[in-house]
Design a protein that fits this description.
The complex is a heterotrimer of chains A (about 170), B (about 300) and C (about 200). Chain A has about 170 residues and is α+β, with helices and mostly antiparallel strands. Chain A is built from three helices and five strands. The longest helix of chain A is centred in the N-terminal third of the chain and has 47 residues. The termini of chain A are far apart. With about 300 residues, chain B is an all-alpha fold. In chain C, strand 1 and strand 2 form a beta hairpin. The chains are: A alpha+beta (about 170), B mainly alpha (about 300), C mainly alpha (about 200). Chains in contact: A-B, A-C, B-C. Chains A and C meet through helix 1 of A and helix 4 of C.
């Protein structure tokens, strides 16, 4: 009994020291980590919707979106979508202006095949979606040039843009 | 050579030695090769000769470096080189094809111990390697005769859901695809020669092609199209019948063919790739030792 | 002399990756580019050296029965610290390494050195052993990373060497890791045979 109590004591002491030092490091790094995350997300928002000055979370019946505001009027919407690609979800942001036109697309996170599907992050591919509206077909090999050899990934991104346009109609 | 050949079991009697078999296969492969050159032109011939030379040279150099007897005379490297060219797009860049041939012989065959010890079919493993390395070049297909870029019939039908070419064109080989996989007619004649000479036997190809046809029909696809398109006929007769990487018994070969057929159907209709023959055979290669273990015929008098 | 040996042996003779073949999981997973390999090496070096130091320092007050849980607590503390620090100061690298930073906890090299070396040796020797092993890990990981990045993406440390379209993509995919590590091990074995 005495032996077990002693071992437990020693282990407890180590755990307390470990938690203490971790709490200390956490205190120092956490603000930095949070601002990093916020900054990179806001940079992405600005990239897809450059006209807006500030962003506010939008109320949508489904999906997630941010209203872009300049002065006191709404200039557009940045919709967050995550279509299923070749290997896992492709997280992306789609910027849509007040006329319902796509003005910017950015891929935030993806796990597509390097050198192939991963090429969907390329500007030359994503730029093709600019100017599309909910009325357009938005279909690789028709009005969009697919990434060679990566039809599934290209289609996923196209599907994401279409979904974003649909979501945007139901956001306030 | 010693007076007695000492080899590991199974000792299956055959009228031919390893050398003769491989050269017979090479001769049978000349038919689909000729069809490929006829449909895809001079570039196909260059590709074919190039991969064959690279494959043979690689084997010779590897064996010379390892200070082992050079056995390029057995024709197995020739067969690997020819098979590799036959399953590549006809306009595939030569230097990439060369690396594929080096991979096939150097890594897949020689590093595993040479002829008889490789786990995977070298040509197919090299094709998988090339597809992962240069996916764009590996999926650039051309139309016969005029070499205009197009999609393969399997891709058109399975992924775009449009009508493919007619059965007759599929049968004679007038369609886009790998150099030697398009002409079912030429492959069948070559296969018949090998069947008649008893170099290959029927269980694996029949099970393979049959299961693809039946499963396609069950899943509501056109079974005849499924059997005629892609690399199925070439793979079934020339790769699923490989002496080294496929099971040795009739029952085992039948199981092997069924497994290949099932995997092909799964990849074609549910997977990301339009064609699955390549991966299905490689996949079943892994199971060959297991199949050999459980599909062994019972010895006379042996209890279960 | 023996101090030098403690440091030296981890680099080639007992290289953790290419000779002892431990800690292969992160080696195979994050060696797809030179920069990822270097980042991972830095994290492992930090954790390994610090844990060796602490384990050697406390080895006399730790009862035998509970040494493994205590090692794990020490190691995971340092892993979590490096995790926070990377997240705060190198967010891009952190994103690229993903789950493999927290997984350093279960890396055999670290627990292995704590148990096999630091628990039985003085602080200075243990620190040198940690540094040497880290250097060996770095050498192996970065060479694999450089080879894979050059062959698979046509670049090194992000600097383009030739047209990426001509690079063999398979080399930055998982099979490329196995092929590269196999050839490196063979090369090292050949080298040793020659020396003997």
């Amino acid at each position: 009994m005495g032996k077990i109590a002693k071992l437990a004591m020693i282990l407890t002491v180590f755990c307390v020291i470990a938690s203490g030092s971790l709490a200390f490091v956490y205190l120092f790094t956490q603000p930095k980590i949070e601002t990093n995350a916020e900054k990179s997300f806001e940079m992405s928002l600005r990239e897809v919707l450059p006209v807006a000055e500030i962003f506010k979370a939008a109320k949508c019946s489904e999906g997630e979106a941010y209203i872009g505001i300049k002065g006191d009027k709404t200039v557009g919407l940045a919709v967050s979508v995550a279509p299923r690609g070749y290997s896992g979800a492709i997280k992306m942001l789609v910027g849509i202006n007040a006329d319902g036109k796509v003005i910017g697309v950015k891929v935030l996170d993806q796990r597509e095949t390097p050198g192939l599907g991963a090429n969907v992050v390329k500007r030359s591919f994503l730029a093709q979606f600019c100017g599309k509206t909910v009325k357009d077909e938005i279909e690789p090999k028709k009005d969009i040039d697919a990434i060679t050899g990566a039809t599934i990934s290209s289609r996923a991104v196209a599907r994401g843009v279409k979904e974003a346009l649909k979501t945007a109609k139901e956001c306030k | 050579m010693s007076a007695f050949d000492i080899s590991s079991p199974p000792h299956i009697r055959s009228p031919y030695g390893a050398n003769n078999i491989m050269w017979l296969v090479a001769i049978a492969l000349l038919l689909p090769s000729a069809a490929g050159v006829y449909f895809f032109g001079f570039a196909g011939l260059v590709l074919l000769v190039f991969t064959t030379i690279v494959a043979v040279l690689t084997e010779a150099i590897c064996q010379w470096l390892a200070k082992k007897p050079v056995t390029i005379g057995d024709g197995s490297a020739v067969v690997t080189g020819m098979l590799l060219a036959l399953i590549l797009p006809p306009t595939f860049p030569l230097w990439m094809a060369g690396i594929g041939a080096i991979f096939a012989i150097g890594l897949v065959k020689v590093l595993f111990g040479g002829l008889g010890f490789n786990i995977f079919n070298p040509a197919l493993a090299a094709r998988a390697f090339l597809l992962a390395s240069w996916p764009v070049a590996m999926t650039t297909w051309v139309r016969p005769f005029d070499a205009i870029t197009t999609a393969t019939p399997l891709y058109v039908v399975n992924k775009l859901h449009e009508a493919g070419p007619g059965y007759w064109n599929l049968f004679i080989g007038n369609r886009a695809g790998s150099l030697g996989e398009t002409s079912v007619l030429a492959i069948l004649i070559g296969a018949l020669i090998l069947l008649a000479a008893r170099v290959i036997d029927w269980p694996a190809p029949t099970a393979f092609i049959g299961s693809v046809g039946i499963l396609s029909w069950l899943l509501g696809h056109d079974p005849l199209f499924a059997m005629l398109s892609g690399g199925l006929i070439l793979g079934a007769f020339f790769m699923a019948t490989d002496y080294v990487t496929a099971p040795v018994t009739t029952k085992g070969r039948f199981i092997f063919g069924l497994g290949c057929g099932l995997m092909t159907v799964l990849i074609r209709y549910f997977g990301g790739f339009p064609e699955g023959v390549n991966y299905s055979i490689l996949f079943m290669n892994i199971f060959t030792p297991l199949i050999d273990k459980y599909a062994r015929p019972r010895l006379f008098g042996q209890r279960r | 002399m023996s101090l030098w040996k403690n440091f030296n042996q981890g680099i080639l003779k007992e290289n953790p990756v290419l000779r002892l073949m431990i800690g292969l999981c992160p080696v195979l997973a994050v060696s797809n580019s030179a920069i990822n390999a270097l980042g991972m090496s830095a994290a492992v070096a930090f954790v390994l050296t610090c844990s060796n130091l602490v384990v050697a320092a406390i080895r006399r007050i730790v009862p035998d029965e509970i040494r493994i849980p205590i090692f794990i607590i020490i190691i995971s503390t340092f892993v979590t610290i490096s995790d926070y620090v990377m997240q705060a100061f190198t967010p891009d690298l952190y994103k690229a390494l993903g789950v493999f930073v927290p997984l350093i906890v279960v890396n055999c090299i670290i627990l292995g050195r704590a148990e096999a070396f630091a628990y039985r040796n003085p602080v200075l020797n243990s620190v040198l052993d940690g540094l040497g092993m880290s250097l060996g890990f770095t050498v192996a990981l970065v060479s694999i990373g450089v080879i894979r990045e050059v062959l698979g993406a046509g670049s090194v440390f992000g600097i383009t060497l030739f047209n990426p379209a001509a690079a063999a993509t398979i080399m930055i995919l998982p099979p490329g890791a196995f092929i590269t590590i196999g050839f490196l091990m063979a090369f090292l074995n050949k080298l040793e045979n020659k020396v003997q």
